[in-house]
Amino acid sequence: MKKFIASLALGFAALGLSGLSFAQDAASAPVAVTASAPAEAAAPAAAAAPAAEPASAAEAAAAPAPTPNKGDTSWMMVSTLLVILMTVPGLALFYGGLVRSKNMLSVLMQVMVTFSLIVVLWAVYGYSLAFTEGNAFIGGFDRLFLKGTWDNVAGTFANAATFSKGVVIPEIVFVAFQATFAGITGALIVGAFAERAKFSAVLLFMVLWFTFSYAPIAHMVWFWMGPDAYTGAEVVDAMNGKAGFIWQMGALDFAGGTVVHINAAVAGLVGAYMIGKRVGYGKEAMAPHSLTLTMVGASLLWVGWFGFNAGSALEANGFAALAFVNTLVATAAAVLSWSAGEALHKGKASMLGAASGAVAGLVAITPAAGNVGVGGALIIGLLAGFAGLWGVNGLKRLLGADDSLDVFGVHGVCGILGAVLTGVFNSPNLGGPSAVGDWVTVGMIAPDAYSIATQVWTQLKAVLITVVWSGLVSVVAFKIVDLVIGLRVPEDEEREGLDITSHGETAYNK
Hints:
This is Ammonium transporter. This protein is mainly alpha-helical.
């Protein structure tokens, strides 16, 4: 652990020295940034790119630069706070209640410290790699240490575009919003190998995985040049060519079905295999120690998820409202379907099942939130409840992995389900808002031109790319960590519990 902390400190020191030199440079030209795409997004993404500069002095005089709307800015700051709420304490309590009491604090620590670590890495280099212009797979270094978000020359904050032409928000607000997405994605992974992983191993893995899996996939799915860059038909191909690889394909992901849930679920599954099963798994009782805390955590997740999904519209507008309503109804539908499936399968519906159903519905509606109508959201939610129930029972047995808190069974299965069904229910023929077919005019694809089969195939390709990319990065990252410091604690420490052996404290006084 001491070696890991020392090496991490040296790395930050080196980055800090380079950051000081970058800070002396004049702010670079505005960089395109993005977020998840509302249903109105053309191919698939969401972007927040700085407003396009006028082509001439005459145009500049006639068309003053757009300024952020205080309502949009306020909504995005509230949404950012809601995502923090869904992580710490929401996810932490949800996971904490599911483990044995001797490991309660270890899970809370892993969630909170992982979130904090990734937020720091996001400010240092993650945001730049994800949301600046580079190539189709990774961004550049224009925003290292968030250089350029404050324009020293103009004496003002840089702006980031939303999905509407001429509408902007402060880029620094977009940075904060997306930081919480990155943070919760890493925190989700820890549930797959809870109760046996070294704390130092978890942190080192997160640094590697965040750098080589999260940032590139976020760039591939969500980065584009923004609506204001599409000034005429003659620049369309050039602007599309600067976007992320999956965005160029036309895949739709409103708030992170691929980037967050599938990405994290695959990493968690790989970790469950490579770290191995818990001591006594399948032979000893490993029941959740507090379903009360799990229910509280699930409730906080549901509340916070409104910021996660509705905030991904980047504006306080109709698409934010659509995502809000879809997040409400899809989650409620999944609670009902999981409970019904459990009652049919086991004879009784449980609190754990209802809480798990809520998470399953939230996961499934995430890529579809602003991309489908309310009817589509209800169907996605109902199917998610049944799919998640199968994921944590039937599929888990087939895979044979000790995925402690069913990260893949819920986030993987329901993330894939939601991503694919987005292609179905985005269709205007099924009540969806369709997608933008022409960013120059912001014209939507007409009902008779929308192909469900084509969009579903595009969604499947995005899922496959995410699975393979995250899987390969995770295997390499876990192997490196295993060689450097080892992945799991000794058996005697695991039996005693990680709260005492890893952190020197207990969750409950006896």
